[in-house]
Predict the structure.
Amino acid sequence: MRRRSAALVTAAVLGATLAGCSEQPAAPAGRPAPDTSPTSVTPTPLVPAGKAPTESFAVGVRQVKLNRDGTRPLPVTLWYPAAGAAGGAVERSAPAADGRFPVVLFSHGLTARPEDYQVLLTRWAAAGFVVAAPRFPHTSRGTDGNALDVLNQPADVSYVLTRVLALGEKAGDPLRGRLDPERVAATGHSAGGVTTIGLFTAGRDARLDAGIVFSGTALGVGTAFAGTVAPQLFVHGEADEVVSYAAGKAVFDAVPWPKAMLSLPKGDHGRALLGDGKALGVVADTTVEFLRWTLYGDPAAKERLPVDAAKGGVATLDDRL
């Protein structure tokens, strides 16, 4: 009875907190098992120094149908660097560009879908990242909208990561040889931000090298960050009407690793991600540089990050990287 009551309370609070997530404008090989003890944090990130691509890529897109345990359908949208001239429309099933690219997982908000975030996610792909965005079985648009199911989503994302990385080894797959399993980040918005935080706390996935949390809260997943160092970037609107800025800042303060928080003084819960205005440009440029630094190990990207964050005066950056 106590467990049931706690679950009902959690569901109610999650539902109330995350109801506006999608508001739109009008241990694999080579990685140790996670150690959750307080002394488990190591002093340096896993990714060695390197250089990110300087050119932009064309972007391809494809769908992969996955299902965890046969009961959790997880169709995944993959955006990836494609062969051909950059700057054109996204091309379905386009040939992949040459190279091995880091993988970035993205978790959508409550009642949203991956395609709602296409403007941002295709910018990541054009910069040299393979973006894998699952559609969750109970929190995407058109489902039962069960907010409590967010607590099952970190395990969904880990499953998706395993299956997506397998494509890089699968004979005949267009992404064979194109994925770098040693350079992986998790990102997500609102309920997807909760999911992302969970991947570094209670559901720590040891394969993850970095995280980006958009408008997220630790409700249900806690702030017991564990395992090897994984730098974190938080993006939050100070006028967020769904997940308070204070809630996001509290999680940021709890992170024991290199971290930064991009704050949008006039930002609400989602329009900076779902639109294509000045704020999205700053968010996109700043997150690209963060991913270049954390996944390619590019020190020049780290130096550019605060410069991009300051463009247009639409955001401020608390930089502790």
User: Anything to note?
Assistant: Residues 41-320 form a domain with the Rossmann fold fold (CATH 3.40.50.1820). Residues 1-13, 23-43 have pLDDT under 50 and may be disordered.
